[in-house]
Amino acid sequence: MKIIEAFWEKRNLGVSCTEISIEKEDTVELLEEKKSNFGSAEYMVIKVPVARFDIHEYLTKNNFIFIEGSINFHLNLKEATLTKLQQRLDGEVTYAEMNSDDLEQLYEEIKKGLFKSDRILLDTYFTADQAAMRYINWIKDELSKTTQVFKIVHKNQAIGFFTFKQIAEHVFYPFLAGLYEKYANSGLGFTTLSKPIEESRKRNGKFISTYTSTNNPSVVRVHTQQGFTIKELQYVYVKHNIISR
Amino acid sequence: MTSLEKYNEAFISSLMVMEPQLSSLKYQLVEGWDSVGHMSLIAALEEAFDIMIDTDDIIDFSSYEKGKKILKKYNVVI
């Protein structure tokens, strides 16, 4: 069991937050035993491997709410595919690392609601503004490390973005991506994966790892259509502890 | 097969919708018309009418009715 004090969520969401990842060997008894360590957080997030019905039952009885499935997708770059039409369109779309103006545009797009299936946005305890600021802060934090942010460009217009970081030798992790509002219904959503794939190839990458929510079936479909396979699936539960101040 | 029949068939087979839904159909209104569905639809229309649709028109192709207007540019009258 991994227990993380997600201190950054105090800044992002205004609540203390503990995130717990249940591992294969963890038991209900261990979870109950550790309860005192994490039970005081205002917002709790627990990620559980699928088919652990004992843990699912325990969490449900303890007033945790199921909020999403988290899919870890994996792509062997040799298996990446595009249809003929996608290949034609992909050739008309470019990408470039963002400058400060591009980043400001990205933050504005996020504030407009770029991420619609996010578990924070869907959670009635939080607001759309909180969900947006969480993403913006996340990107800013990552930019101060090794992450790069790229804009996706069609006819000199930024149509979307992707983040890009290396997490192991030959393995890249584009952990956030999306199309801007004006292009959300353009059919070019596939470029939010095809361009990170292109960049990974340029860097001699062999694999890509991403996480996607089951709350967004369209994004799941675009992953499988381009050759990604499911490496791991977890169920995510949340609980809000109302603490009087 | 008439142009309208070919046009409808492209929607029905690509987006997994029924004929009565077609006239009010818009992008993202049904689960099947997402990014992947859009690419399938455009590919089916290109094949059915032996045309190559410009990227700007692919981006603008946001509804069943809008598509009819766009295809006029390619001398396809629905």
Secondary structure: elements and pairs:
The complex is a heterodimer of chains A (245) and B (78).
Chain A: E1 2-5, H1 8-13, E2 17-21, H2 28-38, E3 43-49, H3 53-61, E4 65-76, H4 84-90, E5 93-97, H5 100-111, H6 119-122, H7 128-143, E6 148-154, E7 157-164, E8 166-168, E9 171-172, E10 177-179, H8 191-202, E11 207-213, H9 217-225, E12 229-240
Chain B: H1 3-15, H2 35-49, H3 55-60, H4 64-72
Summarize the structure.
With 245 residues, chain A is of the alpha+beta class. Helices cover 35% and strands 31% of the residues of chain A.
Task: List its traits.
heterodimer; A: eight-stranded mixed sheet; four-stranded antiparallel sheet; 9 helices; B: about 80 residues; mainly alpha; Non-ribosomal Peptide Synthetase Peptidyl Carrier Protein, Chain A
Question: Describe it for me?
Answer:
The complex is a heterodimer of chains A (245) and B (78). With 245 residues, chain A is α+β, with helices and mostly antiparallel strands. Chain A has helices spanning 8-13, 28-38, 53-61, 84-90, 100-111, 119-122, 128-143, 191-202, 217-225; strands at residues 2-5, 17-21, 43-49, 65-76, 93-97, 148-154, 157-164, 166-168, 171-172, 177-179, 207-213, 229-240. Chain A has an 8-stranded mixed sheet. Chain A has a 4-stranded antiparallel sheet with strand order 5-6-7-10, sandwiched between helices. Chain A is globular, with a radius of gyration of 19 Å. The longest helix of chain B is centred in the middle third of the chain and has 15 residues, at 35-49. The radius of gyration of chain B is 11 Å and the shape is globular. Chain B has one domain (3-72): Non-ribosomal Peptide Synthetase Peptidyl Carrier Protein, Chain A (Orthogonal Bundle). With 78 residues, chain B is mainly α. Classes of the chains: A alpha+beta (245), B mainly alpha (78).
